[in-house]
Design brief:
By secondary structure, the protein is mostly helical. It has one domain. The chain has helices spanning 4-25, 30-37, 46-68, 87-103, 107-112, 119-139. The protein is globular and about 45 Å long. The model has no long low-confidence stretch (mean pLDDT 88).
């Protein structure tokens, strides 16, 4: 049952559900995200409920999935093994936060928003792809 086609279909379905969730929740609207991040100004707390639901769903979901012992479409779970904080992780997190705060998009919502492509979104996507290539070069 764990054929490449089944794994690919499961990935597409998960991505579709993720993108729909981002769109329905308002995470693809940079004005709403920037309003949420503007705690000293016109703060918009609506995304706090989205984040809370995501944390709750993840908390329950991980427990249910790990209770199975093995994943549905793989022989074993692929979990990160690195546990220490280093400069690369902290620097990447800082760049992510700065980019999110300046643009109102993080990578998932940016990709989910490609259907309504605007010049600022295109600039963000180009910078994101450039960042991926730079990160790969640095990691070598």
């Amino acid at each position: 049952m764990s054929t490449p086609a089944v794994k690919t279909a499961a990935g597409y379905i998960a991505g579709l559900l993720f993108g729909l969730g981002l769109a329905i929740s308002g995470m693809t609207d940079p004005a709403r995200v920037l309003g949420f991040l503007d705690i000293a100004g016109a703060w918009d707390p609506t995304l706090m409920f989205v984040l809370g639901a995501a944390v709750g769903t993840t908390f329950v979901g991980y427990r249910l999935v790990f209770a199975r012992g093995t994943p549905l479409f793989s022989a074993k779970f692929q979990l990160p093994t690195k546990q220490e904080l280093d400069a690369k992780l902290l620097g990447g997190a800082a760049l992510f936060g700065v980019g999110w705060g300046l643009s109102g998009y993080c990578p998932g919502p940016a990709i989910a928003s490609m259907g309504g492509l605007t010049l600022p979104l295109l600039a963000l996507l180009a910078a994101m792809v450039l960042g991926w290539f730079i990160a790969q070069r640095i990691a070598r």
